[in-house]
Amino acid sequence: MVRFYIVIALLQKGLDKNHLQNQNSTSISGVEGEFLKVLSEQLHFTYEVFSPYDRQWGTADWTGNWTGVIGMILRNEVDIGLSHISITEERASVVDFSFPYTILDRTFVTAKPGDGPKMASFTYPFNKNVWILILLLTVIAPLLFRPLMFKKRSLASVFFMIFGSMLKQPIDNSEQPCMQRLIYSSWVGSMTLLYFAYSGILLSYITVPWQKKGIKNIRDLAHALQAGTHKCLAPDGTIDTKLLLNSNLHYYRIIGEYIARNNWVYESSAMSEKLLDDRTVLIGSRSLLHGFFGYDPYVTEYISDDSFGVWNIGIALRKNFCCKEELNFAILRTLSSGLYEKWWKDSAFKSGLD
After folding, report:
1. Mean pLDDT, 10 residues at a time, the chain of 354 residues
2. pTM, whole model, 2 decimals?
3. Is 94 helix (H, G, I), strand (E, B) or coil?
């Protein structure tokens, strides 16, 4: 039976190394642990697990040396690297990769925005421009209607009549000629439509409380960082910051610059709802974020629909690895059975119970 040396960056929730002293072996819990167990049973190999001392997936520093999992494979300290490692052109130039077994969709998560102030709920049906228009009409309409229809009345009394008509209060215009009545009827019709529109929208806000506007997409995130209202944390030891800085998209570069300048990073193993508050945004893999915060309709935080990018995920192998074809065949069998997807859903379900 072949024995491999495998490096796993224990940076994901539920991914832990357990020593089985009775069997003198090591097991890995979590989704990747189940994946490794099935592969070892199919290919009949044993393994010894290592973890990189810097707890990183692997990036090249300014000297050209690689850190984390990729660095250990390059130094021939281990044979295999298994820890949700994305296949990039830079990594593929120094190590080999297996057949991709899932995809890495990079996105961000924020705390769910709370309800809007209830004391101001009566202003929610219309936006600011509509309210300004209504205020202008309240001031201008009495000045127009008084010389046309109410010459014998004071400006104050005409103002209160017009204001009352906005609230569906009647106005006595029986003494007015036909043309003035037509003008008044058009005014009353417009105010009636405005009244019903306001009442209907207000009723919907009362039924379903209004939510504050949160950060929905990458452009909103860049604007929030520029405004100084939020900070954005990227996983330590990943290539996220470098990819953002080198992006052709302006908003991506803005986010990357803020992360690099302020050293906004976090350890994936330390991911928790305590990291999230009204001012903090976390970048991460969509599958990992859903695995931690749950899937709809039980997701506890807001996970954006936008993506920074999508990459294939594979098992990192040292160059000239002996059993790549056999490993690829075992991976395809596992994926075809639907086991990998089941493990992720089980992990998300367990996270929701914690």
Report:
1. 64 46 54 87 86 81 86 90 86 93 90 72 79 85 75 77 75 62 75 82 74 85 93 84 89 94 82 78 86 76 89 91 90 91 78 62
2. 0.65
3. coil
